Amino acid sequence: MKAVKLLLVSFFLLIVSTTNVVADKKFDSCAINATYPQAQAEVGETFMAIAGSIVAGAGQGAESKYMDQLISFHAYGPKFVEFNGGWSFDSAGNEHGERQLFGEDLEIGGVTKFAYIEGTLNIAVYCGNVANLTFISDFDLIFKGDGPEEERTFTINNLITLLFVKTKGEWKMVHEHHSPVSVDWTRPQ
Questions:
Q1: Which of 1-10, 28-37, 76-85, 108-117 is predicted least confidently?
Q2: Which domain holds residue 48?
Q3: How far is CA 171 from CA 83, 101, 176, 178, 179, in A?
Q4: Does residue 78 sit within a domain?
Q5: CATH number, domain containing residue 81
Q6: Pairing of strands 158-167, 87-89
Q7: What is the pTM of this model?
C-alpha cells in the first residue's frame, strides 16, 4: 500500500513539474519585452480611425454611419468591460454610452479637439497580438443646449487605457478605462 501511495505521489509530482515546464516554455516563447513596431503602427492607425469616427460623428445621431464605425472597433462580448466615472459597463452599456455621448449629446461638429497630451501616448504590444494604448486625453467637446458655446464647451483630461486584441487581422478594443487626472495635475505649457 505504501508503495502504491509513493508511486501516486511521484506520478503527481512529475505531472505538476512537467506542466510548469511546458507553461514556462510557452510563456517564454512570447518575447514580452519585444517592441513589435508593425503591430504598434497598426494599433496607432486604428486609434486614429477611432478618433476620425468620433470627430466626424459628433452630433450626427446615435445610429449614424460614424457611430456604427466607432462601435465596429470594439470586440463586444462577455469579456468586454469599461470602467468610466467610477462605474463598470458591459458591452451593451459601453455601446449605449458611446452612441449617446458622441452621437446625441454633442452638437454637430461638437468635437473640436480630439488629442492627447504630448508625450503621454504609449502603445505597448505584447506577443504581437495584444496591445495596451495609454494616454492623457485632451478633448474639447461642445454639448447641445442653450446658452453661449463657451458655457457648453468642456475640456476632458482623463487617464485613458484602451486594451486591444488582434482578431481576424484587425485590432479590436476589449477593455476601456477612463479616470480623471489628479487634481494636482497641471497641463504642460
A1: 1-10
A2: 36-180
A3: 20, 23, 14, 20, 23
A4: yes
A5: 3.10.450.50
A6: unpaired
A7: 0.82
| Domain presence at residue 5 | no
Total domains, the chain? 1
User: Using the 8-state DSSP alphabet, how is residue 185 labeled?
Assistant: -
Angle at 8 between CA 4 and CA 9, to 5 degrees: 120
173 lies in some domain: yes
Examine residue 17 and state whether it is found in any structural domain, yes or no. Answer: no
Contacts of 107 (CB under 8 A, 6+ apart): 58, 59, 142, 143, 144, 152
Mind listing the pLDDT tens digit for each residue in 137-177? 999 999 999 999 999 999 999 999 999 999 999 999 999 99
The Cα 35–Cα 43 span in angstroms is 13
State the Cα–Cα distance between residues 158 and 30, nearest whole angstrom: 32
As a whole number of angstroms, the distance between CA 113 and CA 115 comes to 6
Separation CA 127–CA 134 (nearest Å): 18
Q: Enumerate the β-bridge partners of residue 143.
A: 106
